[in-house]
Amino acid sequence: MTVRIPSFAKINLGLRIGALRPDGFHELRTVYQTVALHDVIRVTVVRGSGIEIRCADPRVPKDSTNTCFRIVDRAMQALKARGRVIVQIEKRLPVQGGLGGASGNAVAALLALELALRKKLSGPERLRIAAEVGSDLPLFLVGGTVLGVGRGEEVYPLLDLPATPCVVATPEIAVSTPKAFADWDSMTSNHTKLTPSTASDRMNVCSREISAWLCAGLGSIRRRRSGVSARGGGRAETLQLDLVRTGIENDFEQVVFPQYPELLKVKRVLERAGAQYASLSGSGSAIYGLFESREKASAAAKKLNKAGISAVATSTLTRRQYWKRLQISG
Q1: Strand pairing class (145-149; 154-157)
Q2: In terms of DSSP H, where are the helices of 173-260?
Q3: Could you read off the pLDDT of 60-115 as tens digits, one per residue?
Q4: Options 3.90.1170.20, 3.30.230.10, 3.40.50.300, 3.40.50.1970; which CATH number does 2-160 get?
Q5: Is 165-319 in the same CATH topology as 2-160?
Q6: Known catalytic residues?
Q7: Dist. CA 289–CA 165, nearest whole Å
Q8: C-alpha–C-alpha distance, residues 328 and 330, integer Å
Q9: Mean pLDDT of the chain
Q10: Beta strands 84-90 and 145-149: pairing type?
């Protein structure tokens, strides 16, 4: 039996990097948002044993280092299942693009495996296994707008940002996340003002920014329910503007943009094209912009494509849309 599932991408609505932890990871604060762009995962279980990864993209590992391989291996043990598992990955998202492609692939493979085996892990078990494989995986077991803390693996569903037109630009640049973290450590170590206590303060500021955004969003919903227009605009517009007003940003831009100035140029193009918020996603190289209309998003994507930068107009996905498109009960 073969099960086919889309593997959606994510963007980061702000990302704060905290102090290096004893386990070698950095403390993070970020708001993840799932978007409609996706790869396609097909999982087949046949007689035999072992795990086989198939993908036409040569940059995708086919061995045990692949996130799909690792999560399937753990899931088969947890489910006490037998069989040879074949995972086919149809790549549409960039590799090392900051869109969570490999992480989304792994979670899609896990969900497809459960369907193929007709066995199901509990929610906590899914999250545990996902977190063991990678920091970005658990967000794809929630979908929509998600708060990520710890090293990013501790996730909490937030008030959903409504489906919002956006543009995702994917320059042909591969940014290494480990190197980006190393560059951040090097930069901060050269600035005495960023002491461990200051790093903690920065995380607290980020937490307050997110709290302010959520409170503003809840206030907007209450006003609309009372029949009063929220600041003269719709709910989507209000939450976007509230997000911008918090000043939330991605720390990776401080180390990635100086090395890849062309990425900063892409962000500026999106802003000039009318993006209400534009940012690097993760450590990049993907840059996205949130727009008030599909027409403006399409125009911005066309402008980037004419300039030789691959870009597509798409939309963010609410939690309900995410699970509906997966055709799996969340």
Answers
A1: antiparallel
A2: 177-189, 196-225, 235-246, 253-259
A3: 999 999 999 999 999 999 999 999 999 999 999 988 789 999 999 999 999 999 99
A4: 3.30.230.10
A5: no
A6: 10, 136
A7: 9
A8: 6
A9: 87
A10: unpaired
Mean pLDDT of 261-266: 96
Domain boundaries, the chain: 2-160, 165-319
Q: How far is CA 285 from CA 8, 39, 65, 100, 172, in A?
A: 17, 17, 22, 11, 8
Strands (E) in the chain, as ranges, are 2-20, 26-46, 51-55, 84-90, 145-149, 154-157, 165-169, 277-280, 287-290, 311-315
d(CA 68, CA 65): 9
Identify the residue whose tokens are 């494989």. 133
- CATH of region 165-319: 3.30.70.890
CA atoms within 13 A on the CB side of 17: 23
pLDDT in tens, 164-206: 999 999 998 888 888 999 999 889 877 655 455 556 666 666 6
Supply the Cα-derived Rg of the chain in whole angstroms: 20
